[in-house]
Each structure stands twice: as C-alpha cells, then as structure tokens.
C-alpha cells in the first residue's frame, strides 16, 4: 500500500511545527496538512518539484502558536481549505465534520473529530498514517486550557477515536520539541506520559489542570490571523510609510480613513493625558484615550496584535513612542499620525471636547 502513496514530513523551526504532504502516486492528487505561513514558499516549491496537484489544505485545528499558510496557499494554487466546522471560519471551503471522507485519487482521508485540545480539532487518517495535530503528541498531548479546550473531551477523543485503531497505525503529530518525528498507536497506548491506557480520566484531568503553562508567544497574533486563514495583510486598510523603522501616516490619510474608524476597523488611540484630550487641541471623533506609560503598556500587552491602530498625540512625539512600543510587542498594523493634533487643527478639522 505504501508504494502507492507519496509522503513528506516538513519542519518549521521557530514553532517546532510539522507540516505534511500526502499524495496519491497514480493521480498525483495531494493534500498539505498544517502548513505554516513562513514556510509556504518552501512547501509549494516541493509540491511543484514532486509534480503534485494540490487538492486540499487541511488544518488540524485553529492554531495558537503559528499562523496557518492555508489562505496563502489557496490564493496561489486554488486548493480547497478545510478545518473543523466548529471553528466557524468564513474563508474555509470545507468545514470538516467527524466521519467525513475526502479523497486523493481512490485513497481515502478519513476525518476524525477529536476535540479537547481545542473545540476545532480533527485528526486525519490516511493509509495507516494518523495526523493528530495537537490531540495526541509523541508521549504527550496538547494543552486544554484555552480555545474552548477540555481535558474531559480530549481524553474521550484520544481513547475512543484514536486508541481503537490498529497498534501499528503511525502517529504523525503537529509538533515535537524533542526531535522525534513519529510514533505508533501501540507505543502511545503504552508509553504516553499523560494518556497511556493505565491513566484514568480523573488522573488525566488532574495532570492537565496542574500544567500551568505560559501562553504561546504568538497567541494574540495567531488566533485572529487563523480565523481569516492567515491572510492578515488583506484586512489592512491603511498602508503607512516606514520612517526610521516607525510606520507613519499623515493627517490627510487619517482623514481619508475616518469611515474605517467609525466602522471600528481602525482604532484611533490618543496617548495624551486626560486633560489634554478634552482641552487645548481637543481630540478626533472616535478617538480612545489611553495615556502613554502604564496605561498604554497594559493596553498593548493585552491587545490583539493584528489590530489596525493609529496613535495620536499633541505633536506626534509621544505617539511615535507608542508606535515603537507597539511594534516591539509584535503589533503588525500600528502607525503614528505625524504632526499630531496641532497639524489636525491647522487643517481646520473638527475636534471634540468633553
Ligand atoms: Fe495547537
């Protein structure tokens, strides 16, 4: 059976993510599983070199640690994207359900709904190979403490959907942090540190509740980006100029984009003090006051790194610092309004005061 299919395991270094290419040798129909945005060029080049016709881009779940390459690959290949239906992602072509079947030639990809790590998790079974995402890792499993995760559900998913498969089924996980590439159902049933067959559901739930892991570095960026298939750049309305590493826009451009502020697509964050906000030069309609310093830092730390934000102050100095701080924290679409409220008033634009 194995010589009728093609298989490649690829690795993304920064987030230790595995991407897989599977294909039917006869028809050359292929699927890519869990592609990462940063390695899309590498993966598409390999697919071309292998002479494959990419039919599906399959995500095992909405990832929190990396941005999916699904949207970018769909744009460049016309392959259909698929992720678990619970994700409710509008840009997905095929919302996957438990028990659904997809085909590469006459070879079946069986979709197994395996929620628990997140509520969107699926595992893909193809020709004796199991692509488990983060539901089952080598000697471990994905965390269950965010994205509607549930240790109760993960235990049932793994025990009732995966551990019933033949012992020689090969397990290909979504990640590995210790250099391991594959396992088998038989080995995981015996040796998985959290999930082996001698661990009860109550013991498992206790193990998971005591993990106390830090959130993934990219969670604030990755989850919202993955809800639009990783095509974050398409959601941007303003294209700032980069001056000395700081994205900048003019008062005129802010004016032109005020409808986007009203529609809450772009946020105007005024970083002055409360007194200045309501006196002196006033503030722009729709602006939110978040004063530079502790207030702004905690606002940025908790915020969504994909938010489009224009920072404003009196003359453009403090808002420049705010922009730099946001960029350092991983914000992608923030910018400084050059000239600040002084310039705004010079242009005789309407202002508000409390
Ligand atoms: Fe995950």
Descriptive notes:
It is elongated and about 75 Å long. It is α/β, with parallel strands linked by helices and 354 residues long. It is built from 12 helices and 18 strands. The chain starts with a strand and ends in an 8-residue tail after the last helix. Helix 3 packs across helix 5. Helix content is 28%, strand content 24%. It has 2 domains: 2-209, Ribonuclease Z/Hydroxyacylglutathione hydrolase-like (Metallo-beta-lactamase, Chain A, 4-Layer Sandwich), CATH 3.60.15.10; 236-346, Oxidized Rhodanese, domain 1, CATH 3.40.250.10. Fe (ii) ion binds at residues 61, 63-64, 117, 134, 142.
Précis, in short:
By secondary structure, the protein is α/β, with parallel strands linked by helices. Helices cover 28% and strands 24% of the residues.
Number of strands: 18
Q: What is the 3D form?
A: elongated
The structure class reads: alpha/beta
Query: Mean pLDDT score, rounded?
Result: 93
**Name of the CATH superfamily of the largest domain:** Ribonuclease Z/Hydroxyacylglutathione hydrolase-like
CATH level-1 class of the largest domain: Alpha Beta
Domain module tally? 2
Give the amount of beta strand, in percent: 15-25%
Can you give the helix content as a percent range? 25-40%
How many helices? The count is 12
Please name the CATH architecture of the largest domain: 4-Layer Sandwich
What spatial order of strands do you see in the largest sheet?
1-2-3-4-5-6
The poorly predicted ranges are none
